[in-house]
Design a protein that fits this description.
The protein is mainly α. It is 67% helix and 1% strand. The longest helix is centred in the last third of the chain and has 36 residues, at 409-444. The protein is globular, with a radius of gyration of 25 Å. It is a multi-pass membrane protein. One of its GO terms (cellular component) is membrane. This is O-antigen ligase family protein.
């Protein structure tokens, strides 16, 4: 088992260290690599015990399929990928559970130790990359993502993702300290490095996580005697806070030797950039508009489009930046509320009842992703979602669940089927980029004849319609049904390009009121002021 865990762990590490991110799905390769690593484990590690209450997760995975069948989700690819994400999370839970219950729970210790080692490897190299980005040292963009903005992000493309990853491994280091798996001084150096890089990312989600982490440890400290004492907890918290305030001084000192990124100070970070309030306000109003059935899985943007004229906000969002709001937006108050309640109750029960070091620290390793999910959307990325599922399986292994037995061959077959699906998705994703290039060329030449895709698309139909949308000349006669289909596409992509082009098409087809509506949304989101003359097809 250890050899298989090692191999899968090496594959998994590249989901964080992969530097390649490009549209139309920037995190695609990283998420694909993560899924491959988990499918490898499912093939070779027998899943023979299934707790009945975990089957509920798989019933949740059918929701996107049902929503597509009833026309609530616009594209098959959205429903399929949503289904795969939820089902994969359920499989990760079963994997973690079955690994943990073997050998009377001894395997849980092996698994947690191994996971902590893998994350040390990932976080160490991510920290080195972040330092290179921070100091603006020369580097090869084949191995390190090009720097954008003034906050280092290693190869994860988002500073908050790096902060969450490092926070997760700080807990992993504390777990190794509890079990005396590494020398104290070596662990202290690693934690110091990771904490400093977290401070460099200037992630405010980590501030919230630190508070929750302290409360959790103090609570569990009443029933478990941690080696991580309150004194050590205060010391490490103080070091982190000191790092936050001293980063500007490091910037100033090192600027004589390097072209250091001029990051903002802690006061600016604490007092600016609160667009989430507008996002949450719009989300709540969208829920109020459609409280029963919601807007469809992974269609938060559709909810914003429905209310933005009456409840303006200055940012287009594809997530409500809060996992509870997203789930309710997608499924409505009743179903969304039940899904939220299901996970909340299980997590709270485990927090209260678990007393083993492995299950308690697995609960802690979920916390960075969970706290982040209340402020952003890391759950939309498989390299955070699937490890969370694995930890979830570990934490429920201490509870009496009365599982039933199955033959492991079924899950091996599911894994093989998963590889086939990933292969098709990979093929169509690669071909979709070529389809987009062909569509953009077609558009630049202002052609009005029928556009043919360079490659046929069967699974990722949203990408197919996206390419056809790029190629569509705005001065084209469309019937009402086709205009509605275009409107569905635009509601998922509220970019200046989409809104302006849709306004032109509506105007050309005689729907002036709807055209003005798109211009109003353009002004709300991007400040762009257009006149009616700007959307008239003057050459027609």
């Amino acid at each position: 088992m250890k050899l298989l865990l090692f191999f899968a762990g090496v594959v998994f590490s590249f989901s964080f260290l992969n530097p390649i991110h490009f549209n139309p799905w920037p995190s695609f390769l990283s998420e694909l690599i993560c899924c491959i690593s988990f499918l490898l484990l499912i093939i070779f590690i027998p899943i023979i015990k299934i707790p009945k209450n975990i089957l509920i997760i798989f019933s949740f995975s059918l929701m996107p399929i049902a929503q597509f069948i009833f026309g609530q989700i616009y594209y098959f690819s959205i429903s399929l990928i949503s289904f795969l994400y939820i089902a994969s999370f359920g499989l990760a839970v079963l994997l973690g559970y079955n690994l943990s219950i073997q050998k009377k729970g001894e395997n849980a210790k092996v698994l947690m130790t191994f996971i902590s080692y893998i994350y040390i490897f990932i976080c160490f190299f991510s920290s080195v990359i972040a330092i290179i980005q921070w100091l603006n040292m020369p580097y090869n963009t084949e191995y390190i993502s090009g720097m954008v903005g003034n906050r280092p992000f290693a190869n994860l493309a988002q500073p908050n993702h790096l902060a969450t990853l490092l926070s997760l491994e700080v807990i992993g280091c504390f777990y190794l300290y509890e079990n005396e798996k590494l020398k104290k001084y070596f662990l202290a150096l690693l934690i110091l490095l990771f904490i400093f890089i977290i401070a460099l990312t200037q992630s405010r989600t980590t501030w919230v996580f630190l508070l929750v982490f302290i409360i959790f440890l103090i609570y569990k400290g009443k029933v478990i005697r941690f080696k991580l004492t309150k004194r050590l907890l205060v010391i490490w918290s103080g070091i982190y806070i000191s790092c936050i305030f001293t980063v500007p001084f490091f910037n100033e000192f090192l600027s004589s030797y390097f072209n250091v990124l001029q990051t903002t100070n802690v006061i600016e970070r604490a007092t600016t950039g609160y667009l989430r309030m507008e996002i949450w306000n719009q989300s709540l109003h969208a829920i109020k508009e459609k409280p029963l059935f919601g807007y469809g899985w992974n269609q938060t943007s559709v909810a914003q489009y429905a209310v933005i004229e009456n409840y303006p906000g200055k940012e287009w969002f594809s997530s409500a930046h809060n996992i509870v709001l997203d789930i309710i937006i997608w499924n409505g108050l009743i179903v969304g509320g039940l899904i939220t309640l299901y996970f909340l109750l299980i997590y709270l029960v485990c927090l209260i009842k678990n007393i083993k070091i492995e299950t308690v620290f697995a609960s802690l390793m979920i916390l960075p992703v969970l706290v982040h999910s209340f402020l952003e959307y890391p759950f939309k990325y498989s390299y955070f979602l699937l490890p969370t599922g694995l930890f979830w399986g570990i934490i429920i292994s201490e509870i009496e669940l009365k599982p039933f037995s199955v033959r492991s061959i079924y899950f091996s077959l599911i894994s093989i089927f998963g590889f086939l699906i990933l292969g098709f998705i990979f093929k169509e994703f690669n071909e979709s980029t070529d389809n987009n290039v062909a569509a953009n060329t077609y558009e630049m030449n202002e052609r009005v004849d029928h556009f043919e895709l360079a490659y046929p698309v069967y699974i990722l139909d949203e990408f197919k319609y996206r390419s056809q949308w790029f190629a569509l000349n705005p001065c084209t006669r469309l019937n009402r049904n086709d205009l509605n289909k275009v409107g569905n596409m635009v509601s998922l992509h509220l970019t200046p390009y989409d809104l302006l082009k849709y306004a032109k098409i509506l105007s050309y087809n005689g729907f002036q009121k709807e055209a003005f509506s798109q211009l109003k949304i353009l002004e709300i989101l991007y400040g762009g002021k257009y006149k009616y003359d700007d959307i008239i097809c003057k050459n027609k």
